[in-house]
């Protein structure tokens, strides 16, 4: 006999059970929704940590702001250009010095601390840099600010200004007027290339200029899709992968004679040499993204290069300034303050290939950083800081570590960064300057990198003295602490996946002159922003958070809606 059914088509007696189950399910779902809407469960310990980070953020940004205003007083009154030195009778603007290492980081500081200077004075300086230093072929030259005379075109000036200066601005801010200056300056340099090789004309015989141009060109090829840039990238890459490395014990040379097909038998693993290692690895990453045949051919050649470099390191994994390419013994036994540039290239190789040995090498050197507290990376004639060496060695070594801990947050390395930042910031004089030369831009670069780390990439649209920003992550939630003068309210920006959105890289490869990403928002995702106690809730798109959302002092929780 068929069982009776209810009006809902259920067996008799089960309708009530189903009804109660349905109600229970609704209650359970409501509970889940409510739980999802609760503020992130950040503890008082998290708050204390965020506030401490805010103090560190403030120390770094304040120092950078002081140096910005100190250098603006040194600008030439006619051209507004900055001299290389402030304590010498000569006053010369050089694109490879002041242009590459000073101007861009003052510009980026102004973007954060003085937007009116960024859009005003800094833009005037760009106009005048183009007006006074450009030759008809597009290359820049040195400009004597006293004689008001322009020197000859400089390939080195173009490569260095684009790579260390304009590229850093582009990595940080995207397609600004400085991006377009970089695009045309890079193209002008390749059109002016004069070194004949079996692969086409190259900008230079030395690894510094060619490495710098590779780094510029890879970014331009990825960002623009312009075939010229990719063709130039491959010309440079092939010259080193197919000729220089196979003929030079698997390593680049400082100088290579492309007619005699031989080099000087040395490679610098610090500035003025390691640029080619970084450039080749970034080229490999691009080819891996494009899934071309070059990535297959390049891989074993570049793996050998990295293995040779690792074999030359000291017991802690630190690299010597210069090594002999045959014996792998140091020619210059001082340690490179740019060690992380090369290890960043190794990490990029790991990201592209998945070969864990190169990730392990990076983690190893980071764990050993505690052996280098108060280390004099660069000798200094400055009596005030002679024992510690130049601030510039600290700036570059800290920059090295900051690139890497953004991918591998090794506790020993993070402790080392905090201790050594105190040393570097302590070298700044009361007048805002440090050593009176263009390299002080690197002081600001590292201070801004450090501030990014402490705030997880969160910044006020306009910073003011006393404003402290510190952030702590818990999974995909963020606790932001804002401390400052009573009553402060202002727009606060969040970071986006710049490597993908702006540079068009498939992965967030380690890149020299980048600003690492920490907490990033997706432009088309909804986020809930509220005080830690759940009040003042607002729901915003990631694109709105990136543009700036108004917040007041206190602790705020940011999470996906």
Give structural notes.
The protein is α+β, with helices and mostly antiparallel strands and 561 residues long. Among the domains are: 119 residues, no CATH class; 150 residues, no CATH class. 50% of the residues lie in helices and 12% in strands. The chain is built from 18 helices and 16 strands. A hairpin with a 2-residue loop joins strand 10 and strand 11. Helix 2 packs across helix 3.
- The percent range for strand residues is 5-15%
Low-confidence stretches: 1-21, 23-40
Rg from alpha-carbon coordinates: 27 Å
Tally of individual helices? 18
Number of strand elements:
16
Give a short overview:
With 561 residues, the protein is of the alpha+beta class. 50% of the residues lie in helices and 12% in strands.
